[in-house]
Specification:
homodimer, 283 residues, alpha+beta, BirA Bifunctional Protein, domain 2, seven-stranded mixed β-sheet, three-stranded antiparallel β-sheet, 9 helices, 12 strands, globular
């Protein structure tokens, strides 16, 4: 077998896209297994949502107003039958937009939106916890190893129900994450963050100033490896998901950026093998 | 918790996109775990390749000539800063192609291409086995439940090396798959298939007629749940991957369409619970 598959290189990236070698795959899976255990502990059931979201659904949550730069849209050739073999020019690096059809779908930028779209119109929803893992995509102005990727995997544990339950959901996960990082010996701290979803220019910025909606778990003061997010009843309203009294549900979620955990675990020159042993011992 | 999360509905699909509920997620993971065990048994190491492939890489293997209809291309807004809040029209269902940039990347339609792109230019490669699981996308003229999806997951176990090793790799997996399906009691048979990669109009069609390059494992004579594929030295040539003598390597792969296994396991009215028990008993 090739040597490089056995060396300590757990991951590489190019143009914001990561290649995980065996050690990196094992680390991602080990971190996700821990998050999934917690999800089961709080009664969340695992769902796997469609890997594409419709432009119509995204527009229903003002997505293009708030994140015009982020969305990775999908398309296809407008005239696939139009080219005879060899009709394509010599190996080119791109397909012109004139050869594409309009985009009706995008790749998700967060895992949890799909849960709200899936529940669109659900009446009299009892408090519900859902966990899902999704590959997410975000156009960024620059990429940096596993720390800032064009495409990455996110595990989320989502709560839908009443305001107090939504707040308790986040408090629970703040405690679990802080305790686990202490056992792992990772240098982390919580920091209140601005949720880019609540655009500075929009009316929701005021609400953001009143009550923080996002807190990030920062590794070494700079790398957000997890976040807890309170959405109040925003998604309940936009997706017409209501509680037993007919009021839009409140939602909240905790998210784990899986590749960023790998970056933190491999920091300080720790090998994949040592990081895996650390995770095993901390179980 | 909501009732529907506990019912027997393991999966639903709409417009070729599947939503897997807990039973469906468990089934996909159980089938993949079995394939991964086999992969480890034959010495394959697990890789996770970039979830997008470049148009340039695809052109290097004549992809757009052979599969002009299949590729799902990705793009983004050309002028993300151009719209003020509220500038977007009322919730629309699409983003016009004129608002997109040219597409330089596509979503993969098969898991194994990325392995060859990753090894591009590798000299003196010793025989290598790699396994990878990837979310694939294919534009089709129609979709049908879990049996024909726009997006699905594929586990592949890939061989790179000499011609005889490539053939033996496929023979091994044909044996393993036939034996496992017998234990599971699944009605399957192998059928020689035309690999659409080897376009009827192209010169490779002749080679295809001489030696079958693809065999599919058909459930009930109609649903291909796995396939074995011999590529001769095509990818070795195109990606300049050479053996110790400087000759392009021969490659072959076995692929598992994970959602199709779920469809077969849930056939005949079997519940997800019963299908999981069947997989457990057959381990």
């Amino acid at each position: 077998m090739r040597m490089f598959l056995r060396d300590e290189t757990a991951a590489t990236s190019r143009e914001g896209l990561a290649t995980l070698r065996p050690g990196g795959v094992a680390l991602v899976e080990a971190v996700d297994a821990k998050a999934l255990t917690w999800a089961h502990d709080v009664g969340a059931e695992e769902m796997r949502f469609p890997p594409l979201v419709s432009v119509a659904d995204l527009m229903s949550i003002d997505y293009f107003d708030n994140f015009p730069q982020l969305p990775v849209l999908v398309s296809r050739l407008a005239k696939p039958g139009g080219s005879e073999p060899g009709a394509w020019p010599e190996p080119a690096a791109r397909v012109g937009r004139d050869e594409l059809v309009d985009a009706e779908y995008a790749l998700p930028s967060s895992a949890c939106y799909s849960a709200y779209f899936d529940l669109r119109g659900a009446p009299a929803l009892a408090p519900t916890r859902i966990t899902t893992r999704a590959r997410c995509y975000r156009n960024e102005s620059r990429y940096e190893g596993l720390r800032r990727l064009w495409s990455f995997e996110m595990r989320e544990i989502i709560y839908l129900g009443q305001a107090d339950g939504a707040a308790e959901h986040l408090a629970t996960f703040k405690r679990l994450l802080s305790a686990w990082c202490a056992v792992l010996g990772l240098d982390v701290a919580w920091r209140t963050a601005v949720d880019p979803f609540f655009d500075k220019r929009g009316p929701r910025a005021l609400a953001q100033a009143i009550a923080p909606v996002k807190e990030e778990l920062l590794y070494k003061g700079e790398l957000a490896i997890a976040s807890v997010n309170a959405h109040r009843n925003f998604f309940g309203e936009r997706c017409q998901i209501t509680d037993h009294e007919g009021a839009p549900v409140h939602t909240s979620c905790v998210g784990f950026g899986l590749e960023r955990w790998v970056a933190a675990l491999l920091d300080d020159g720790r090998t994949a093998e040592k990081a895996l042993a650390l995770l095993r011992d901390a179980r």
